[in-house]
Structure formats: C-alpha cells, structure tokens
Amino acid sequence: MYELVKRLTFPILKVEQKEPTPLPGHSQEGFMQVIRPAPAYLQYRLFYWKMGVAAGVLVVLTLCIALLTISWWFIILDIAIILFAAFKAALFYVAIRLDYEMRWYVITDRSLLIRQGVWVVREICLTFANAQNVRVKQGPLQRIFGFSSVEVDTAGGGRRKEGESQTHAHHAVLQGLDDPGRVRDLILDLLRRHRTAGLGDPDDRADTPITHTSHDLALMNEIWAEAKRLRSVLELSVPQDNHY
Amino acid sequence: MHGDPDAHLADVDAKRIFALTRPDDSLLTLYVIYSLLANAAFLFVFIPLYFRFKTLRYRFDEEGVSVSYGILWRKETYLTYARIQDIHVSRNIFERWLGLGSVEIQTASGSASAEEAIVGIREYNEVRNFLYARMRGHRLTTGHQEPAKIPSAQQALTGIRDELRAIRQIMEGQHHV
Questions:
Q1: B95 vs chain A: nearest CA distance in angstroms?
Q2: In whole angstroms, what is the distance from residue B177 CA to residue A167 CA?
Q3: What is the rounded distance in angstroms from the CA atom of residue A161 to the CA atom of residue A159?
Q4: What is the pLDDT at residue A244?
Q5: CA-CA distance, B34 to B31, in Å (whole number)?
Q6: Could A15 and B165 be called an inter-chain contact, meaning their C-beta atoms sit closer than 8 Å?
Q7: For the packed helices A214-243 and B145-176, what is the interaxial angle rounded to 10 degrees?
Q8: What is the mean pLDDT of residues B133-157?
Q9: What does each C-alpha distance from A9 to A2, A13, A15, A88 come to in angstroms?
Q10: What angle do CA A67, A71, A76 make, to 5 degrees?
Q11: From CA B133, how far away is CA B135, in angstroms rounded?
Q12: Chain B interface, mutation test: which of A14, A31, A118, A127, most B Cβ atoms within 10 Å?
C-alpha cells in the first residue's frame, strides 16, 4: 500500500531518492561517511502519528454521533468528515515515511552535508572550520525509543524558540541517530583539527595543526633516552681521547 | 606543500557562475503561483514580487557575491566568500516543478534568516559548489597535505632515533677498540 502511494507521489514530488553527491574537492580516497537515521526514529515519528490518529478518531466519532443525534440526514456529512480524516491520516503517514527515507548525513574530513525534507528539500553544508559547537540532545520519549539527535552550530544566531531542534540558519541537526556518541566524537575529532575561531579568519596555510599521538610521544621518549645514553658514552670516551 | 593549493577551485566552472546575473525567467511563474496562493490578496503579493523579479541582480566576483533588488526601496547585500558560515540549498515543491532552487548563504551575523539568498536559479548546485569551494576550512585539509603530515612526522622521529642509535653504536665500538 505504502509502496504504491510512494510510486504514485514520486513524480509529483520530484524528489530524488539517492544519497547526495559529496562536495567538490573531496578526493576519492578521502574520509567520507554517510549516516542514515535509525529505524527507531521512524518508530518514534509513527508513535506520534498513532497518538494523533487515536485523538482524531475520538474527536471524529464524538462529532459524528453528536450530529446523528440531531438528525439522521447528517449521515452524509458524517461520511464526508470520516473520509477527509482518513485521507489526512494517510497523507501524514506517507509524509512521515518519506521524510524518514529522505534523510542523509554526509560527513567528510572537512565538511558536513545534510539533505532532508520532502515538501521542501533542503541541503545544508558547512565546513568543520566554521562549526562552533556540537550538542547531543535526547528527550524522554527519544530515550525510550533509543535515539538522539546531534546538532552542529555555526557562528551567528537569530531568534528562534528555545529547545527547537529543526535545521535552520546556523544550525544543522542530525536527527534520529542510534549511535550519537560515535558521531559526536567523530565531529569533535574533525573540529579539533582547526585552531581558528571559525569567524571568517582567512585560511592560513602555515597554520597546519600539529597533533601528537601517544605513539609519537613514546618515540620522543625513546629519542630522549637514546640521547642521554649517547652523552654518557661520549663522556666516557673524552678522557680516553686525551691519552692518544 | 603538495601541488597547487588552489587546484580544488578547478572543480567548479567559475566562468559560468560569474556569468550569472539574473534569476531564471521561470521565477516569475513561481511568484505568480505564490500570489495565487494568497487568493484575495493576489495583487498585494504579486506587485512587490513582480518588481523584485524585474530588478533582481546577482554579481559574483573573485572575492564575494552581491544581490540587489528594489525600485523605491533599494537593497544591495554584499558578502565575501571567506565569511560564509553555512550554505543551504532549499527547493520547495513548486521550485522543483519549475526546476529552480534557492541558495541561502549564512554569515556570522545575528539574523535568523539567511543573510543573502540567491533565488530562482537553475544552477543551484553549481553555485553551492562554487561557494563551498571558496569557504573557509575547505582548503585547509585539501589534497594530500593532511594525510602526508602524520606519517612524515613519525618517519622523521623514527629516523632521528635510528641515527642516534647508530652514532652511539659507532662510538661504543671506538671506545672498546
């Protein structure tokens, strides 16, 4: 049923169901990860839909019975109301399913690209050099379903409702992730490569980040020890040189 | 430095973008649709949109992009590519029917809406890629610089250690002989 509706609506909606192409400058061997929302996210959205349907059925039934108590002729109006309500519920169901299928989060070594939406298809891209903070959010219901959303902000704000987690200007939201910790660590790791403030500083090519891994440090310690031993060997050899 | 640091800019055909000065003609169709949706207020919605369409001008140059429109109240926004924070490409259902798209550009200012929007163009993807390729943070890790950095540092350190060890062994040898 859903597949049929989807096939019927796709030519009208003109959305393309394929993952977004990586941004220019991305090399073939470069790091890239395509993340999709978890099935739990769909369950969560459908849960809201079910609640809505339950409330709708209650309201429609009450209304229909109330109308029938006035006159039996209102049965025609009743049928119209029920058909309209059923159509609306079906429309929302398809919209939720499509919205779930039309979400891609593409993370490369330097940028984040999000494509989402059915009515309005929106593609957001930002570079990690410009990202200001990363936030992991989870509501009580989302905890029950077992997913979180990860939000990445860039500089600049604007009025918006507190707690709203829709993607808009300066604000990218990766909704419905079942492994938010991994995604957060991944993004933070990419963020750490940039030491500038992300406020439009011109690129400084000499400012390549220096990162020392534990392996580097172990090597440096070895060099230190090696140098110490070299000095002690030299110290021993110096008095011998005087004998020659 | 490995190769030309601006090599990534070649990915996007800049000439095509620089030639882009006007929105596509079907933007007017889109504005008619928007106005029709307003029903009774058709003229109130359509007249300003018509003049906006007529006066809308884009100008891309090496440093930035400007958008201007207006007959009585004129408005021109200019922003430099380096100051772009994030780029949104949005296409609502009418825009998709007409093959149009809007590129919304955000800088670090405090406005809730996009600081500059390039609306009603068919080359929305090309424009987005063009802008992206000129954003901060795009070239910082471009090419093979970043991956080459870490192994070369390790190689250097290992080399130093091996050198030192060899020197010590030679000196130890001299000492015993």
A1: 9
A2: 76
A3: 7
A4: 47
A5: 5
A6: no
A7: 30
A8: 60
A9: 10, 6, 10, 15
A10: 70
A11: 6
A12: A127
Q: What average pLDDT does chain B have?
A: 82
Q: How far is Cα B12 from Cα B166, in angstroms, rounded to an integer?
A: 52
Please indicate, yes or no, whether the overall pTM of this predicted structure exceeds 0.80. Answer: no
The verdict on a CB contact (< 8 Å) between B160 and A223 is yes
Q: Residue A110: its chain B contacts at CB < 8 A?
A: 137-138, 140-142
Cα separation, A122 vs A173, in Å, equals 12
What is d(CA B124, CA A240) in angstroms, rounded to the nearest whole number? Answer: 79
Q: Which residue of A has its CA nearest to B6?
A: A25
Chain A CB contacts of B175 under 8 Å are 233, 236-237, 240
Helix count and strand count (H, E) for chain B = 6, 6
> Three-class SS string for A66-92?
HHHHHCHHHHHHHHHHHHHHHHHHHHH
Q: What is the ipTM of this complex?
A: 0.70
Please give the Cα distance from A92 to A51 (Å, whole number).
12
Q: Please tell me the distance from the alpha carbon of residue B27 to that of residue B105, in angstroms, as a whole number.
A: 19
**What average pLDDT is seen over chain A?**
82
Query: Could you say which of B110, B128, B138 has the minimum Cβ distance to residue A110?
Result: B138
Distance CA B112, CA B109 (A): 9
